[in-house]
Amino acid sequence: MSFDGDIKARNESAWLLPTDGSRTDHRLRADMRRHEPTDEVDLVVVGAGAGGSVLTQRLARAGWSVVCLDAGPFWDPDTDWVSDERASHTLYWTDPRQIGGKDPVPLGSNNSGRGVGGSMIHYAGYTPRFHPSDFRTRTADGVGADWPIGYPDLKPHYQHLEAELPVAGQDWPWGDPHRYPHHPHPVSGNGEIFLRGAAAAGITARVGPVAITNGRFGNRPHCIYRGFCLQGCKVNAKASPLITHIPDALAHGAEIRPDSHVTRVLIDDRTGRVTGVSYLRAGVEHRQRARAVAIAGYSIETPRLLLLSATPRYPGGLGNDHDQVGRYLMVQGAPQTAGRFDDEIRMYKAPPPEVSSEQFYETDPGKPYQRGWSIQTVSPLPITWAEHVTAQGHWGEPLREYMRDYVHWATLGALCEFLPDPGNRVTLAEETDRHGLPVAHFAYTQTENDRLLMRAAQDSMETILHVAGAREVITIDRYAHLVGGARMATRAEDGVVDADHRVFGVPNLFIVDGSVLPTQGAANPALTIMALAARAAHRLATRQVHADTPSPAGAP
Ligand SMILES: Cc1cc2nc3c(=O)[nH]c(=O)nc-3n(C[C@H](O)[C@H](O)[C@H](O)COP(=O)(O)OP(=O)(O)OC[C@H]3O[C@@H](n4cnc5c(N)ncnc54)[C@H](O)[C@@H]3O)c2cc1C
Ligand code: SF4
User: Fold this and answer.
1) Is 297 near ligand 1, meaning CB less than 6 Å away?
2) How far apart are the first and last CA of the chain?
3) 287 has which bridge partners?
4) What integer pLDDT is reported at residue 27 of this predicted model?
5) Dist. CA 551 → ligand 2 center (Å)
6) What is the pLDDT of residue 12?
7) Are 513 and 32 spatial neighbours (Cβ–Cβ below 8 Å)?
8) What is the pLDDT of residue 555?
């Protein structure tokens, strides 16, 4: 299909993933269609994570020829994953990166994934929507930024994806109140503590929302409640693109090319248009020609690739005519509070995501800070529990005692909406990786508002655990979820992509991952990233955005 040709699949509902669980066999890859590098495909997608997978699946169903390259492996849950914390570190992106700023953010296991399925392979499984207010924080609260799109633009895509994953949870009273397609899961000891403490403290809490099948779903068995969601869910009860959107993309002719690290987006400097990508596979350089490219490599690698792709026509990197690439990178403040109970809690005997509250999500005019936080059960496994205890300064015999006492602890986590700041940024470092390419340097400094939110969130969690009967409470500060770095904006002076995800100044280059978020709310981001990708695919497939014409707002 060409961008100028007829769209074969006019029936838009035909682009969605079937909601009967029938498309869940990742082994379809044995029969995958394969393109020659010399073929000019309609679209190359860089990264098969939350954003890249949904874009690939939707456009493959719409009849586009799509090659999706991922730097990591094509995982097989049966043979590659183990229910073992230590042995699961291969799931993370551990290539070297530099961190700096006044509040450096540790990267690696807590921030990004590698391989087909992306970070959703080891995400916890929480799938809340953003609130309508998240799209206009500048107007409503005088902080952050207004998005060039609003909640109603994403709402139908949220609804489709909640059915496709599918999502289980109680009716949701916050933001835009809504229901979920699957009933909530039963809760374990940690969830019961949260519900009990929240009720006693006058805080509303709900079970869910999680992208974990409640009961058998098509080829997917039900959850066995063993708590290894952050280690890849060998069972396939937890949804990730590897077992949802990727198999469907394969069935509709997309090619997924694993172990292929894209090092450069190729540009014809005469026209200013993208012609394909250059990538390394087993140390050998290859190229794939394409009529358009969509980058979906996560918040650090996406800005890095834009910077690495500089040419004489784009000397500062692609989309960087206004020095915007890498800026406004955000991370949520994620303090974690544990409470010790006389009864055995055994928090590991359930998915870590069970119960959550968005009662403190919105700005409270009576408080000295803007925006808010959510609270969720987190249930660390033993190694992560040891990290919690050592972060409190315990070592030696006290550490051993906390570890022996593990079954008596319940743990909650908060997600605080840290605000975007232009100085929080990815740049290229002097240091190079094993391919000789400059690594990313990520500088991060908190604002005063961020610090106030962290303390308030901590207080709310400690209150819940105290009133639930905890005898001892310990809190540590953490970060979670990187987004931003190539944000969506109305004008090229304020961001890197327009409302259609098109890079300002490069007509056939798109960014379709978490790096386009202008603000992050206090919700986990994966469902919103998938919804953005579904919307972008819909607009491309229906030719509401053309890769053959420049963006009106940003063309040089
Ligand atoms: C421990 C943990 C728990 C989480 N829990 C939750 C949760 O419960 N709910 C939630 O909503 N979110 C959660 N998240 C966050 C969520 O998983 C991410 O926000 C989301 O997956 C990001 O989507 P993305 O498309 O931007 O990138 P990703 O899903 O990370 O996909 C990026 C892909 O690009 C590939 N890639 C990168 N660079 C290149 C390159 N140069 N060439 C080729 N391929 C490349 C990577 O290998 C990766 O597969 C969690 C994250 C972590 C780390
Ligand atoms: S608890 Fe359920 S969703 Fe989590 S890893 Fe186990 S089977 Fe998968």
Assistant:
1) yes
2) 28
3) 278
4) 62
5) 44
6) 65
7) no
8) 29
Side-chain-side CA neighbours of residue 317 (13 Å)? 20
Ligand 1 centroid, distance to 193 Cα (angstroms)? 30
CA 139 to the chain's CA centroid:
26
Report which bound ligand comes closest to the CA of 352. 2
Longest C-alpha distance within the chain, in Å? 71
Q: How far is CA 524 from CA 121, 167, 332, 444, in A?
A: 15, 14, 9, 20
Q: Which ligand is nearest to the CA of 188?
A: 2
Q: What's the token pair of residue 454?
A: 């962290």
Q: What's at 106, amino acid-wise?
A: P
Residues 6+ apart with CB under 8 A from 79: none
DSSP 57-114: HHHHHTT--EEEE-SS----HHHH--S-SGGGGGGB--S--EEESSS----STTT-B-
CA 265 to ligand 2 centroid distance, Å: 38
Token readout for 14 is 């035909």
Look up residue 232 and give its two tokens: 């890849």
Q: Which residue has the tokens 């053309």?
A: 546
Mark the ranges of the chain whose per-residue pLDDT is less than 50: 1-10, 550-556
| Sequence-separated (6 or more) residues with CB below 8 Å from residue 254 | 33, 56, 57, 59, 60, 66, 67, 68
Which region holds residue 448: left if phi is over 0, alpha if psi is between -120 and 50, else beta? alpha
**pLDDT score recorded for residue 13:** 73
Residues linked to residue 443 through DSSP beta bridges, in sequence order: 100, 425
> Is there an atom of ligand 2 within 6 Å of 233 CB?
yes
pLDDT confidence of residue 550: 45
CA-CA distance, 425 to 496, in Å (whole number)?
A: 13
pLDDT at residue number 552: 38
Query: Which residue has the least CA distance to atom 16 on ligand 1?
Result: 526
Specify whether the CB–CB gap between 313 and 272 falls below 8 A.
yes
pLDDT on residue 556? 25
Q: How far apart are CA 286 and CA 274, in angstroms?
A: 16
